[in-house]
Amino acid sequence: MTRMISRSILIATVAALLLAACAAPRPHAPRELPATPEAIRAAVTATTAALPHYHQITGRWQNEQTTSTYHAYFSGPHLEYETESAGDGDKSYAVNKYYYVDGVLYYFHGQGSVGSGDSFNPQPAEIDVQIAFDAAGRVTRSVKTLNGRSAALEKGEAAAILEHAGELRRDATATLANQAG
Length: 181
Known about the structure:
33% of the residues lie in helices and 36% in strands. It is of the alpha+beta class. Strand 1 (55-62) and strand 2 form a beta hairpin. The protein is globular, with a radius of gyration of 23 Å. Residues 1-28 have low confidence and may be disordered.
């Protein structure tokens, strides 16, 4: 009889633990940032394919020199992707894409044209910048072309991209919170 009661208690305890484990909210497990060029390409492709399933926020960002329009895509509370179109009138434009894993920027791709086409710079410079970041915001890979030729990142360029990505992320996250509340 004691053995039967112990067995019943054991079964009830195991069942209670299983039910509690299933019902308990689980913290979001952070995903690993893609690190290799192949992993980054695969993650970018997967993110792009998933865009229709994400919640989209549209916003405007502005400072003294430029105004941009962005579209931010969230999976739950986590920013996964942003695209930004920026310009300062007729002189320059940029289309920037920011890829995130759980709100952490891991890849940036920006394309644009800089220059006024004036007598000092008759042809605007065409720029393409691709930067991969680690979780600490350090550059792990970068490719920059200027008018189709390889060019080095300028000092502070990656840091400025990270800072601006943070500004856009904060703005989009605040907009998402306002829509929810």
